Amino acid sequence: MEIDKRQKRMLYVLAAVLAYAAFELITNPEQYFGFYMGSEKADTQTAVITQPIDANQLEKKPGVNEYDKDWAEDPFYIKVEKKRRAVRQSRPQVRLNLSAISFGGGQPVAMINDEILSVNDIIAGYKVQAIEPKRVILIKGNDRRVLTLQ
User: Fold this and answer.
1) Which end of the chain is more exposed for a tag (fewer CB within 10 A), N or C?
2) What percent of the chain lies above the pLDDT cut of 90?
3) Complete DSSP assignment for 20-46
4) What is the distance, to the nearest Å, from the Cα of residue 142 to the centroid of all Cα atoms in its chain?
5) Are 30 and 41 in contact (CB under 8 A)?
6) Residue 13 neighbours by CB under 8 Å, 6+ apart
7) Helix axis angle, 29-37 to 5-27, nearest 10°
8) Which of 3-12, 24-33, 116-125, 133-142 has the lowest mean pLDDT?
9) List of residues 6+ apart from 146 with CB closer than 8 A
10) Rounded to the nearest 5 degrees, what angle is found at the Cα of 74, between the Cα atoms of 72 and 79?
11) Are 121 and 108 in contact (CB under 8 A)?
């Protein structure tokens, strides 16, 4: 694999930039790593103070765990809210007792709570969807109940 002139020039420029960055990093480590090492070096020259200073007069700067009250919200703070599970409120179910099923006469019928019902009849808000030899299927919206013959 050969490198043409343009690629060589780019490599020289890249090497020069990396060399300058390494030199800066070695000569001024506090400028680049000072925040992580805990030192706060001011960019301006340090003033010599001849009078004692009251601690209440100093301007407080927000630290790592402090929050500047003038800001509306911290833009870097991500609120994580736990979703609460919706507690399914159990309504008192109507007691439905299947006591008999008959297929005589061409149309199946079932006796539920001492009422004789056929397909599409309604009892306690439930619609009779199907009558089978050993069970009856009732529906009410998305709720489905299956009554079995005992």
Assistant:
1) N
2) 43
3) HHHHHHHH-HHHHHHHHHT----SSPP
4) 28
5) yes
6) none
7) 60
8) 24-33
9) 135, 136, 137, 138
10) 110
11) no
CA–CA distance, 107 with 113 (Å, rounded to integer): 19
Task: Report the distance separating Cα 111 and Cα 97, nearest Å.
Answer: 8
Copy the structure tokens of residue 147: 């009554």
CA distance 150 to 96: 13
Nearest-angstrom CA–CA distance, 116 and 147: 14
Tokens of 86: 């919706």
The C-alpha atoms of residue 118 and residue 149 are separated, in whole angstroms, by 16
CA distance 34 to 50: 27
As a whole number, the mean pLDDT across the chain is: 78
Q: pLDDT value at position 15?
A: 96
Its pTM stands at: 0.40
Tell me the chain's radius of gyration from C-alpha atoms: 41
Show Cβ contacts of residue 147 under 8 Å, excluding neighbours closer than 6 positions. 96, 97, 98, 110, 112, 135, 136, 137, 138
Q: Which residue has the higher pLDDT, 10 or 42?
A: 10
Contact (CB, 8 A) for 107 and 118: yes
